[in-house]
Amino acid sequence: MQELSSLPLKAEQIKTDTDSLKYYGKDWTTYFDIKASAIVFPESTEDVVNIVKWARANKIALVPSGGRTGLSGAACALNGEVVVSFEKMHRILSFNETDSTVQIEPGVITESLQEFARSKNLYYPVDFAARGSSQLGGNIATNAGGIKVVRYGLTRDWVVGLEVVTGSGEVLNLNNGLIKNATGLDLRHLFVGSEGILGFITQATIKLAPKPPELKVLVFALDQLSSVMKVYSEFKNRCALQAYEMFSEKALKHVLHSTGLPRPLETVADFYVVCEVECASEKAEENIMSVFEGCLENGWLLDGVISQSEVQAKTFWRYREDISEALSVHSPYKNDVAVAISKVPDFIVDLDLVLSQAYPNWEVVWFGHIGDGNLHINILRPEGMTKEQFVAECRKVDEMVFKAVQKQAGSISAEHGVGVTKRSFLTYTRSPEEIEIMKGIKKVFDPDNIMNPGKVI
Question: Where is each FAD-binding PCMH-type domain found (predicted)?
């Protein structure tokens, strides 16, 4: 690309080789043809400003790239865009002990922030399986959720300040870490979950939580989906619940085959739950056991086990967190959807009917953050079917799945974002009026449509 010669970056901050274009030009989706034209690596906010102004002057589109763990195609370069990788902007800039806040660059790895918080006897609670490679900028741009939403909410709830570069090259400092700030529209929240279509995050101020007490992890076996929510209600109402995750026997078999782990329980069931609760005292542990035994007596649980060590707790979590990696060899077609928690039982009935009728001979594996109404659907590609045929067949059924979501006033994307994969289905969750307003907001921040164009809207 001839225009690259005018880009004010060092030579080592620009890559155009084929391997780099393919590596940085995609996310975890596997069915897009990547067509990036160059990769650039800013090292400062000033670099990002220069890149955006250069792109605007040359009418070149930009795609942001973090840890590339997204599943919606939002970080995929499909039309000759220049990819802006934030991996060199990975510093933890400052820590404020009084405010319990930390200022970071967007390329900081999620797990690195968690470890930093622990070193300060604090806690960063947004957590998910991709913690070791996802970056905070991407987490913010997709409003990442994960396994602790029941107790701690989403990424949005922990972002108290942002520095962003808009599509016109302006630098905005939003909220400045304030807890109270009643001065009109809070533009910070427009950028959280925006998937890079308004501008790029260059710094963030994140608040940290007090370190939680000792945690206990339980694994349950259940034979009825209806029991999943009954057990959830008991633990939510009577314990300090941190996480509540469901997966199927189908999912567990893939994990056991992939990892070689032993079965968590002697009982083989259709469904399992991993449940994490705070255990601050002997009395709290007695209460946990009382709730557990009550669920057994009511027939909602077939079997269960409680962790006796940190090592065992981590193993229990692997049965849930290793599902995606175990399924990856089958190139699954993924959907993540959400409804209000109270509507989960009715929604599951509708969804099960749609999937069983649509894919009678295909393997469909689902699991989810049942405690916050979020289900992940994985359709495994049958042997002998090409990628193109498989995706075409799956997208035919998307509409039926999303109609079931719409019936319950839910979301077609709980945490993976819209990107490219959900863009044409956005009307199942958002009204035409909302979409037009979103387009108008994008035009304000990105007048030349250079910031991740073609994504979301």
Answer: 32-211
Q: Cα-flanking dihedrals φ and ψ of residue 216, to 5°?
A: -115, 140
What was the pLDDT predicted at 196? 97
Q: CA 264 to CA 216: how far, in whole Å?
A: 15
For 305, the 3-state DSSP assignment is strand
CATH number for the 92-210 domain, one of 3.30.465.10, 2.60.120.200, 3.30.470.30, 3.40.50.300? 3.30.465.10
Neighbours of 386 (CB within 10 A): 9
Percentage with pLDDT > 90 across the chain = 80
The CATH number of 2-85, from 3.40.50.300, 3.30.750.24, 3.40.50.2000, 3.30.43.10, is 3.30.43.10
Mode of pairing for the β-strands spanning 82-85 and 62-65: parallel
Which DSSP symbol is given to 204?
E
Listed residue (311, 303, 319) closest to 254, CA to CA: 319
**Maximal C-alpha separation, the chain:** 72
| 393 SS3 class | helix
Structure tokens at 56: 């605007």
Question: Which has the higher per-residue pLDDT, 46 or 390?
Answer: 46
DSSP output for 357-384 = HH-TTS-EEEEEEGGGTEEEEEEPPPTT
Question: What is residue 2's predicted lDDT score, i.e. its pLDDT?
Answer: 66
CA dist 157 → 234, 252, 258 (Å): 26, 32, 35
Report the C-alpha dihedral over residues 201, 205, 211, 212, rounded to 10 degrees. -50
Which tokens sit at 416? 């993976």
Has this prediction a pTM greater than 0.90? Answer: yes
Q: What is the pLDDT of residues 98-137, one digit of tens each?
A: 999 999 999 999 999 999 999 999 999 999 889 999 999 9
Is 331-433 in the same CATH topology as 2-85? Answer: no
Query: Mean pLDDT over residues 148-156, rounded?
Result: 94
pLDDT of residue 352: 84
Q: Is residue 315 within 8 Å of 261, Cβ to Cβ? A: yes
Residue 1 has pLDDT above 80, yes or no: no
